[in-house]
Amino acid sequence: MTIRLMNPTVARDIKPGDKIEVFNEWYWVRYINYHGSQITLRLQPEEEPLSPFCENDRVVVTVPEDLMIDVECN
After folding, report:
1. Residue 17 burial (CB < 10 Å; 0-12/13-18/19+)?
2. Per-residue pLDDT tens over the stretch 2-39
3. DSSP assignment, residue 23?
4. For 50-57, which contacts have Cβ atoms below 8 Å and span 24 or more sequence positions?
5. Helix and strand element counts for the chain (H, E)
6. Which of 6, 47, 54, 57 is 20 to 30 A from 24 via CA?
7. Over the stretch 46-74, which tens digit does the pLDDT of each residue have?
């Protein structure tokens, strides 16, 4: 069992390369779009190499910019 240390982070402070959990699966944050008070996160599975040049997005979520999200500590 892997132990992951989490850091609660406001959505607007998340950056590409961060790793987050969505529906019990882990994803890399690949790309972020800002839309006023909302943010769209484009995610790719943790097991795939993180790359800004490929279209491996499996999950795209739009959240309020002030939503608290647990980000894995590096």
Report:
1. exposed
2. 788 999 999 999 999 999 998 888 999 998 999 999 99
3. T
4. 50/17, 52/16, 56/30, 57/30, 57/31
5. 0, 6
6. 54
7. 888 776 666 666 789 999 999 999 999 97
